[in-house]
Each structure stands twice: as structure tokens, then as C-alpha cells.
Amino acid sequence: QVQLVESGGGLAQAGGSLRLSCAASGLTFSDYYMGWFRQAPGKLRVFVAASWSGGTSTYADSVKGRFTFSRDNAKNAIYLQMDSLKPEDTGVYFCAAAKRSGLGVSNYDYWGQGTQVTVSS
Description:
single chain
């Protein structure tokens, strides 16, 4: 049974930082394209960042230069370092795993339960 468990969300002030973690189990982690998505209240879930093992990370334009995606195959984990946070970064952040690369929600096979990030102005 595949499980993705996010942690690290919380409240931050604009300009501050947070680091999200996602622990994966029940899958061959190095074989999966891993990504982060977020969903603001009343809006659709959107792509944030993703990468293959050992590959170049892809970022949404809205987070380029501020967020950093990383993964640790030894720990079956991915991370999202979020710096220079803005109020519009507020939302529930989801970890996801896919067998092929892609930015669309429908591309992903497994999802975590999400972790709330709130950025105050």
C-alpha cells in the first residue's frame, strides 16, 4: 500500500520561510516522478514543483527563484524549501507520485493528505 505523508506546514509571515517534507512508502521511490501541488481555498489544485531521481527540477513560474525542490532516495523523501513566502502561497500543499513525468493533476497516481501553509501579510 502506497503512502505519502506530508509534514512541515504551518503559519509564516510574508518574506519568511517554511520547509515541507513528504515521506513515501510502499513504492519503489527512485522509479517515480515526485511532485508538489497546492490548492488555495476555492481554487483548483495546481502544480508547484517536481523531479525525477537525479533529474532537473521543474517549477511553476509563480515559485521559480523562491522555492527549491529536493529528494533523498535513501530516505524515500522529498522536500520543498519555500523562501520569500507571499500571502498568495497560502494553501494546502500535496505530495504526489507519478510513473511518468507531467505537470497535470491527472498524471499522478498517488497523493498525500496535504499539509496547510498559511502566509500572513
